[in-house]
Amino acid sequence: MPRLLPEWHPQDAVQLTWPRRDSDWAPTLPAIEAMLEQLALIISRYQSVIIGVPDRDTGEALSGRLLARGAPPERLRLTVVDADDTWARDHGPLATGDGDGVTFHDLGFNGWGGKFPADRDNTLTRQLKDAGLIACPTSESAVIMEGGALETDGEGTLLTTEACLLNPNRNPSMSRADIETWLAETLGIQRVLWLCHGHLEGDDTDSHIDTLARFCDPQTIAYVRCDDPSDAHYAELAAMERELKALTRADGSPYRLVPLPWPSACHDAEDGHRLPATYANFLIINGAVLVPVYGDRHDLAALDALAGAFPDRDIIPVDASAAIVQHGSLHCLTMQWPQGTLTTAEGDRR
């Protein structure tokens, strides 16, 4: 039976969506473009990178810069798309596989419960298909389901939060049982592990799991832990930690839990509200794990913790300070395309 593929499944590419000049990124556009450019360069060392750009001129200029900095030309797949924002994790496709092939699932996206415009983002997968980039079958569904809300072990278990998947701003007509049935029938999920606790101030997603706890392999979960009793997050994250410790694998064995440090409080420069900085928003690619860092004294401890969780992969820090100002981070900006999903460009050596 096809199952939702884990992030460590071999990949063809990682998808990025470039910001428009008139988007919410306008005040900090040079900073986020510099971060995304660095991200694309790192990914291109390991595999292809798909970049949806707002117009041809932007694509040509970006391609020129990436090539000048050493990106392999056969691993750059740029195409013009019409998008609202940059969060590829939530407007990108989800993938299931069964050993015989992969299927992309083009699911509904409504701007995290109608908080932001999303009509164009909701067509992104169709646009990439029309551009000739998708090599696998594609299945469409109107069910609202964001990639950042789902963590799988690749063996039929899903880790998620009640605050997001059961929020009436997503699928108001669906009960918990309805959602579990849909997950089973569409994504091959046999067990859903629901977290009742876990929230970051400044988060627009209603507690996406990829800001809180992540599968590193079928036995291991890395999660954020707050050790400061004076921090507003302390009680909620302590309750989440207790939930994680009580979870077991399908065979009844406990998970190996890897606590990640809590970065120092990060605040918006304009109005001072707290930003949802987290080390859990890392990205797994072929041969490496890209870890968001914030110029914080806890960065090194986070890198060390994830090096222990991924001993066979390069651990690469990526400064995510430019992304956090819009309440997202590294994983939110990216979506992996598993092996067998990207059409082959002439000379592509991925």
UniProtKB/TrEMBL annotation:
Transmembrane segments: none annotated. Keywords: Hydrolase. It comes from the Bacteria. InterPro entries: Peptidyl-Arg-deiminase_porph. The keyword Hydrolase applies. This is Agmatine deiminase. The lineage of its organism: Bacteria, Pseudomonadati, Pseudomonadota, Gammaproteobacteria, Oceanospirillales.
